[in-house]
Amino acid sequence: MAQLKLHTLPLEIELEQSDLNSTPVELATELTIAWLSNPNTRAQAEEVPAFLQKMHEAVTSLEDGSGRAEASQPEAQHEPAVTVRKSLASRDHLISLIDGKPYKSLRRHLTRHGLTPEQYRERYNLKADYPMVAPAYSDSRREMAKKIGLGNKGRQAKSSTAPKVERTKGTRRRQPKVEAEA
C-alpha cells in the first residue's frame, strides 16, 4: 500500500492510498481534525463549523478542478462597526469602521488589515476627503513642525542667497563687465 506524507510546519499528516479516494466530506473532516489538534491553533467552538465548511468548499473545488473556492462566494459586504458620523465625532481620535476602536492615525491600523486608505474608503463608501488622521493630532504635529522650522528652510535659503540691490526710480541694474583675455 503506497503512503503519501504531507509535511507542514508543526503538523505531519500521513495519507494512505485509500484516503486519497475519500469523499470531500471525509477529507474536510480530517483536515479540520488536524487543524484542531495543532497546539498553536486557538479556536472557539463557534469557529469550527465555519472552518469545516471552508475546508469542504476548498476540497470540493480542488476535486472539480476549478481550484478556486472563492469564485463561488459573492464578495462579502463589510458592515461598519460604527457610523461614519460617530467615527468623526471627536477631534482627539478617529474611530475605525473595522473594529470600532479609537486611533489618532488610521494608516498603520489599515496596513495591519491589509488595506490602503483608498481601499478603506471604497470598502465603506466614504468620500475621498475622509481623514486618516485625527484633527487634534494633525494640528499638534503641524505646530511642532512650525516650531522646529520644518518647511521654512527652502524659503529662507532662497531669500538669503539673492543679493538685495537698492534701486531708485528710473535706474537699471548694470551687468558686470566681462574682461576679454588676450
UniProtKB/TrEMBL annotation:
* Organism superkingdom: Bacteria
Pfam families given in the database record? ROS_MUCR
Note down the stretches annotated as region Disordered.
Answer: 146-182
UniProt similarity note:
Belongs to the ros/MucR family.
Tell me the protein's name. Answer: MucR family transcriptional regulator
**Source organism of the structure:** Sphingomonas swuensis
